[in-house]
Structure formats: structure tokens, C-alpha cells
């Protein structure tokens, strides 16, 4: 096992555990720790004024330190007190898996950390975004329940084939953007590819719509009033650039509603508008309203068609409670209703999320076809027939029958047996020597073996994934591209050593380090690095070494002149240090 488990993680199904990877805490460099510390100090100082009160409270409750990147094991010891856990993954994972983790009260944390060059914002999920953004807010019970419920509903949303293509494109961009030395042209091409895909997605799938809801709440949500909003979305909480930008008049504030599901977003750019929910409970209200539009709750012909278009493993549930899981291939319809549904390949049957004995994928390796509806000329549906009714209509062991459904599907053969649920309702009628036809077209032939006729007059639900997780081998995840770990140059190793020495000095582990010597070597060998001089300035301030402070500030001014893009980052770092010492004085 590549991670330390606990009672919450023990409950995860195997197919989710395949995404978990070890955190490898020792791989974080002193530069990584400095990036974390800078972002967290700046965030806590600023966000304590503009974030929802749950954020600062949650930092304390979840044990997230300002000075150290969180260790997943330590986080889990504290998170279990509020009924949650966290696992490390490699960057983006498929949206349905991400949401399913949430349904089990597990936070998915991309354990990599952004480069210093992307300190303000990165499209890649990283530990700043996940650990410092998502984790603190779940200490709020109402929000935590929203997140869990969102995962439970979201993982049932039906995707389209194009959704997965977009997921791979976004994952690719996040990887190359965080990789050292990626040519700007390659990044631009990846961004254009995403833009092209987004413009040509066609009608948005359920997953696309619910992903929009996730983005405008969990990632980029505001709470309160349009005039006086507070931040709670993890994307904003973890972005020192966008958390300030979003509070300006340049970002439009809109009352949160179901309209958010139909509002697209661009992961590569700051958001031009944000939605404001009055409170966390309202998030759940909008989520339930949206769930009422999903095939999960509506079923019907449209639900079956969504599953066919997805080309992925899904489930339909009939009005009897019988659940059929597989890849849906075809549907015959009449008057806007399905009359015969066909899967292809391995199919399993279940009732209440538990596979029916004798109806695994081994029994149905080549697909499964089922009539839907009532019998022609008979007022009572098969599912509503009691034992006497079934016998009266010759739906009985040993009877050779011809059953014609209202949609024109005919089932002819000899009945062997029936399968009932615990309440005695008939779910399946099994035939031998059976022929199933529709308008002369053969849908099932006797030589194909036994025919298990599903019973149900309506499709009441259609959703992503299998009814019983154990019915299918879901350990099929293959990451086509992993985050890039560059080979470090001698110069980079030297810079990491400087950062490490100053970190050890600040933490009292090695006070013999000459800060002045490190500074002189840094100026000579790494004249463009700005974060370590800011840390040195903090130590000079603490030691009341005025001459050293002035020397560092002069060097930082040179860096700002040569690289104006980092000017505000330097200024903010110095201002934060000066302000903290003013408070002490």
C-alpha cells in the first residue's frame, strides 16, 4: 500500500484506490516550502479580511501550517475528527472519480506544488490549491455535507465522449505549464486546443453542466451579498492574484442560481464574473434542483439516449427496481418512449445496487436486450401482476407463450422460471427456445441461449457507472501522461541549497550559517531570484540589522527594474514583513 490508511479510506472501493499515490514528502525542496510559506502568509493576512469566517477557523481545525507544506498523514489525523480524510493523486483525475471521492468524504489532493514562476496562479491542481483551499472550508458542517452530496450526485452524471477528450487536454496543459522549460509556443498550442474543444463540445452533457456548478461554487464561489461578498471557493482561496482581483469592480458579481450550470468557464484565464450564494444551505438547494433535471431522476428515453451517446459504462433502472449495467448501444422508441433497449458487451443485472445471483457479466458477456412497457390489450402491467394474475395470463412455468408489447415487440418461447424481489414483485421472466422480434426484425434468436426478459414498464433512472461496483473490473485507469519531474541542473541544486540553509537558520536548526555570505553568492549566481532575498530581509528585520536590510532592498529594486512582473510580489512580501514587525512593536 502506497499510503497510510484509516477507517474512512478503508471504505473506498478498489477502483478509487487506483488513483492514490504516495505523497513522498521528502521530495519537496526548500524552494517548494518557501513558495508555500509565501502564499500562505500572504493569503492568511489578506483572506482573514475577505474570506468566509470558516476559512480561518478551518485552518486551525484542519491543522494546516503556514510555515510547512502539510503532510497528508498529519492532515488525516486531524481531518478524521470532522469525518473526512485526504489522499494524494497525480494532478487531474477524471471528473467522475474526483466527485466519487467526495461522496466518500475524501479530499483529493494533487501533492505537487506550483513552480515559483507560477506562484500567483496555476491551472494545475496542486497542494496549495487543494490543501490550503479545499481543506479549511470543509470544517464547516453545512458546506462539508454539500461537498459530499455533490460528489454523490456528480459521480452519477453522464458524460459525453468529448468530455473525456477535454479532460485529457486540460490535464496536458496543466502538466506542461508546470514543467520547467516548456516552450511558450507549446503552452499556447495547448491552450488553443482547449479553446477549440470548448467551442465544439456540442450540447453540454450532464457532467459538463454539473462541472460548471462545481466550478462556480467549490472552486470559484463567493458567499454573502452581491455588494459585500466573502470568498469560499478553493480556486480563489489558493490564488494570491485572483483572490484580490475578484474583489474589485472589474469582476461582475451575480446572485447564485441554477443558471450557473449553463455558464461556461475558461480554466486558462481569470474569471470575468462570479456567483454569490447567500449561504451554504442555498448551495444544496440549487444542487437538488439541478439533480431533478438529470437522467438519474428523470430516466425515460432521453436518459437512455444520453447513455448511448456517452459510449461509457452506465446503468438504467426500470420501474420494478431492476438495474441493467453495461454499455448501451441501441434503443427502439415509439411516441417518445423506449420500447426495447440493447447493450453491447459485458452486462450485469442488479437490484438495489446488488448484483442478482446468476446475472453477472459472465452470464451476459455479449450484451442484453429488454422490452419496456405494457403488454398489448392488457390493462395491468406484468410488474403489477400477483401470482394468480401471472398464471391467468399464462406467464407461468412450462407455458409456451407469445407476449406482444404495446410497442410491437414480441417475445415467444417457453417459460422456465421467474426472478422476484423480496417484496414478491417479478423482475425477470426466463425463457428457453425464445425468439424476440420487432416488425419482423429478430432481436433475439433461440440459438443464443436462455432469454431473460426484464420486467418494467418505465425507465425511471439512467446514470453513469455500474449499479454494483463489484460487477465490473474497474481497475482500468491508465494515466497517459504524468507530471514531469525535471532533471535538476547544478545551478538549480545550488539555489535549493541556499534556500535550505536559510530555512534551517530561521528554524534554529543551524544558526552558524552566514546569511550575508548566502546573499552575496545569491546575487552573484542567481541575480533574478526574488523570494530568497525577501526571506533574508525578514531575518535582517528580525535581527534589527538595518544595513543588511537596506542592501537587500536595493538588490530587490534592481530585480524589479529588470523584471517588472514580479514587482508587486516583492512589494507585497516586504509590506507583509514590515507590517508584522509593526504589530509586534
UniProtKB/TrEMBL annotation:
<dbReference type="GO" id="GO:0005506">
    <property type="term" value="F:iron ion binding"/>
</dbReference>
<feature type="binding site">
    <location>
        <position position="219"/>
    </location>
    <ligand>
        <name>Fe cation</name>
    </ligand>
</feature>
<keyword id="KW-0560">Oxidoreductase</keyword>
<comment type="similarity">
    <text>Belongs to the biopterin-dependent aromatic amino acid hydroxylase family.</text>
</comment>
<dbReference type="InterPro" id="IPR019774">
    <property type="entry name" value="Aromatic-AA_hydroxylase_C"/>
</dbReference>
<dbReference type="InterPro" id="IPR036329">
    <property type="entry name" value="Aro-AA_hydroxylase_C_sf"/>
</dbReference>
<keyword id="KW-0408">Iron</keyword>
<feature type="binding site">
    <location>
        <position position="134"/>
    </location>
    <ligand>
        <name>Fe cation</name>
    </ligand>
</feature>
<feature type="domain" description="Biopterin-dependent aromatic amino acid hydroxylase family profile">
    <location>
        <begin position="1"/>
        <end position="340"/>
    </location>
</feature>
<dbReference type="Pfam" id="PF00351">
    <property type="entry name" value="Biopterin_H"/>
</dbReference>
<protein>
    <submittedName>
        <fullName>Phenylalanine 4-monooxygenase</fullName>
    </submittedName>
</protein>
<dbReference type="GO" id="GO:0009072">
    <property type="term" value="P:aromatic amino acid metabolic process"/>
</dbReference>
<dbReference type="InterPro" id="IPR001273">
    <property type="entry name" value="ArAA_hydroxylase"/>
</dbReference>
<keyword id="KW-0479">Metal-binding</keyword>
<keyword id="KW-0503">Monooxygenase</keyword>
<dbReference type="GO" id="GO:0016714">
    <property type="term" value="F:oxidoreductase activity, acting on paired donors, with incorporation or reduction of molecular oxygen, reduced pteridine as one donor, and incorporation of one atom of oxygen"/>
</dbReference>
<dbReference type="InterPro" id="IPR036951">
    <property type="entry name" value="ArAA_hydroxylase_sf"/>
</dbReference>
<feature type="binding site">
    <location>
        <position position="129"/>
    </location>
    <ligand>
        <name>Fe cation</name>
    </ligand>
</feature>
Amino acid at each position: 500500500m502506497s499510503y497510510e490508511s484509516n477507517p474512512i479510506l478503508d471504505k473506498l472501493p478498489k477502483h478509487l484506490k487506483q488513483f492514490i499515490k504516495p505523497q513522498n514528502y521528502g521530495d519537496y525542496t526548500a524552494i517548494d516550502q518557501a513558495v508555500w510559506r509565501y502564499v500562505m502568509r500572504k493569503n492568511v493576512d489578506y483572506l482573514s479580511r475577505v474570506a468566509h469566517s470558516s476559512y480561518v477557523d478551518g485552518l486551525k481545525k484542519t491543522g494546516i501550517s503556514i510555515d510547512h507544506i502539510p503532510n497528508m498523514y498529519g492532515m488525516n489525523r486531524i481531518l478524521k475528527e470532522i469525518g473526512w480524510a485526504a489522499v494524494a493523486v497525480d494532478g487531474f483525475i477524471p471528473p467522475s472519480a474526483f466527485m466519487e471521492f467526495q461522496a466518500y468524504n475524501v479530499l483529493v489532493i494533487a501533492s505537487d506544488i506550483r513552480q515559483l514562476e507560477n506562484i500567483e496562479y496555476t491551472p494545475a491542481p496542486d497542494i496549495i490549491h487543494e490543501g490550503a483551499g479545499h481543506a479549511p472550508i470543509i470544517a464547516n458542517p453545512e458546506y462539508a455535507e454539500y461537498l459530499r452530496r455533490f460528489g454523490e450526485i456528480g459521480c452519477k452524471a453522464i458524460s459525453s465522449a468529448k468530455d473525456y477528450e477535454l479532460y485529457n487536454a486540460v490535464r496536458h496543459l496543466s502538466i506542461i505549464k508546470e514543467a520547467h522549460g516548456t516552450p511558450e509556443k507549446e503552452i499556447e498550442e495547448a491552450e488553443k486546443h482547449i479553446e477549440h474543444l470548448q467551442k465544439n463540445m456540442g450540447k453540454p452533457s450532464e457532467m459538463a453542466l454539473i462541472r460548471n456548478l462545481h466550478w462556480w461554487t467549490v472552486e470559484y464561489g463567493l458567499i454573502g451579498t452581491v455588494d459585500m461578498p466573502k470568498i469560499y471557493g478553493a480556486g480563489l482561496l489558493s490564488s494570491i492574484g485572483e483572490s484580490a482581483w475578484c474583489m474589485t469592480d472589474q469582476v461582475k458579481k451575480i446572485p447564485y442560481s441554477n443558471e450557473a450550470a449553463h455558464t461556461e468557464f475558461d480554466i486558462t484565464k481569470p474569471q470575468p464574473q462570479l456567483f454569490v450564494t447567500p449561504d451554504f444551505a442555498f448551495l444544496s438547494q440549487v444542487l437538488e434542483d439541478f439533480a431533478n433535471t438529470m437522467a438519474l431522476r428523470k430516466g425515460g428515453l432521453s436518459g437512455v439516449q444520453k447513455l448511448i451517446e456517452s459510449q461509457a459504462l452506465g446503468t438504467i433502472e426500470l420501474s420494478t427496481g431492476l438495474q441493467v449495467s453495461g454499455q448501451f448501444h441501441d434503443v427502439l422508441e415509439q411516441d417518445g418512449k423506449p420500447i426495447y433497449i440493447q447493450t453491447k458487451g459485458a452486462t450485469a443485472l442488479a437490484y438495489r445496487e446488488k448484483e442478482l445471483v446468476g446475472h453477472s457479466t459472465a452470464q451476459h458477456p455479449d450484451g442484453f436486450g429488454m422490452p419496456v412497457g405494457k403488454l398489448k390489450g392488457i390493462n395491468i402491467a406484468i410488474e403489477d401482476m400477483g401470482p394468480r394474475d401471472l398464471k391467468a395470463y399464462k406467464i407461468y412455468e412450462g407455458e409456451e407463450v407469445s407476449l406482444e408489447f404495446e410497442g410491437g415487440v414480441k417475445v415467444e418461447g417457453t417459460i422456465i422460471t421467474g426472478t422476484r424481489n423480496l417484496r414478491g414483485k417479478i423482475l425477470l421472466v426466463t425463457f428457453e427456445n425464445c425468439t424476440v422480434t420487432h416488425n419482423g426484425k429478430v432481436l433475439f434468436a433461440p440459438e443464443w441461449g436462455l432469454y431473460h426478459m426484464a420486467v418494467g414498464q418505465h425507465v425511471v433512472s439512467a446514470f453513469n457507472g455500474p449499479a454494483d461496483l463489484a460487477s465490473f473490473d474497474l481497475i482500468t485507469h491508465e494515466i497517459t501522461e504524468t507530471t514531469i519531474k525535471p532533471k535538476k541542473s547544478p545551478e538549480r541544486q545550488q539555489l535549493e541549497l541556499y534556500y535550505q540553509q536559510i530555512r534551517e537558520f530561521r528554524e534554529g536548526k543551524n544558526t552558524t550559517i552566514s546569511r550575508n555570505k548566502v546573499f552575496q553568492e545569491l546575487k552573484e549566481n542567481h541575480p533574478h531570484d526574488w523570494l530568497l532575498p525577501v526571506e533574508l530581509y525578514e531575518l535582517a528585520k528580525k535581527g534589527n540589522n538595518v544595513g543588511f536590510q537596506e542592501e537587500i532592498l536595493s538588490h530587490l529594486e534592481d530585480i524589479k527594474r529588470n523584471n517588472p512582473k514580479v514587482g508587486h510580489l516583492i512589494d507585497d512580501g516586504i509590506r507583509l514583513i514590515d507590517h508584522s514587525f509593526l504589530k509586534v512593536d
